[in-house]
Structure formats: C-alpha cells, structure tokens
Amino acid sequence: AGDLLGMQACNLQNLPENYTLRYYLYHAMTWPSLSYVAEDNKGRVVGYILAKMEEDAAEKNEPPHGHVTSISVLRSYRRLGLAKKLMLLSQEAMAAIYKAEYVSLHVRKSNRAAIGLYRDTLGFEVHGVEAKYYADGEDALAMRLSLKEK
Fold first, then answer.
1. Can you tell me the distance from the alpha carbon of 58 to that of 53, in angstroms, rounded to the nearest whole number?
2. In whole angstroms, what is the distance from residue 66 CA to residue 83 CA?
3. What pLDDT, in 10s, does the model give residues 22-53?
C-alpha cells in the first residue's frame, strides 16, 4: 500500500490527470504484474507506471492488449532511463502473462518529451488523435506498440 501512496504522490506532483487511491488499488489488485515503481535509495517512489489490460477487448472483437494508464517520473530523476525501464517491464509482463498483442497509450499532443520517448526510443506509432481527450480540452495522440515477435 505504501507504493500506491507513493505512486499517487508522484502523480499529484507531476500530472494534471489525477486518480483516486481506489483506482490505483484496482489496478494493483486486478493486474498486479503490470504496474511498477522506481524508488530512490531511501525507498521513496520517484517514478511509476500504472498499466492494465483492456477489459472489453473480447467483446469488441479485438486481440488482447495492454494500456498504459499513467506514467510519471519526478523532474529531478528524469533523463536517467527510468521511464523507459518502467515501460519495458510493463510491456514484457503484458506479453508474457496476458499474451498482449500490443500496448496502447494516450499522450498530450503538446508533450514533446513523452512523444519522443514513446516514438523514438520505444517504437510506438501514432494510431489516431482523440479530440479534447483531456479535461482542459487538449487533444491526445493515441499511440500503439506491437508486442508480437518480429
């Protein structure tokens, strides 16, 4: 539970999209192997990834796939490769445990640093644009990465 509180604190400090503790708990209980934290040497959470499997994929006749709900690294711990490592851990678990064919995420169109990480470092591709996705009216890029063996 300490990690969940740390994840929530990191989220509140860094992102305008915030979630209730119940939401973190739901992810942790339902998909315990998909969310991870990065800690400093004192055990404080300095980054996290909150991820899940899409629950309605079968009803929509879609292949099993994961989704990154939220990822954040505290500003003073950025550019150390933590976000990449968190993403890779989650993606590997999605493929190995749940046989996910791809992972999806949403990112603000204005978030150049995140788009660079997803596209240039991790190989995600833009799948579409979701107009006014965020509460403040900003559009989101819907991005996907195939997890199938190439």
1. 11
2. 17
3. 777 788 888 989 999 898 999 888 988 989 99
- The answer, as to whether pTM is greater than 0.85, is no
- Give, rounded to a whole angstrom, the gap between the first and last alpha carbons of the chain: 38
Report d(CA 78, CA 72) in Å as an integer: 9
Phi, psi of 23 (to 5 degrees): -65, -45
Taking only the tens place, the pLDDT of each residue in 72-101 is 888 889 889 999 999 999 999 999 999 999
How far is residue 127's CA from residue 116's CA, in Å, rounded to a whole number? 15
Q: How far is CA 87 from CA 47, 73, 82, 97, in A?
A: 11, 12, 9, 15
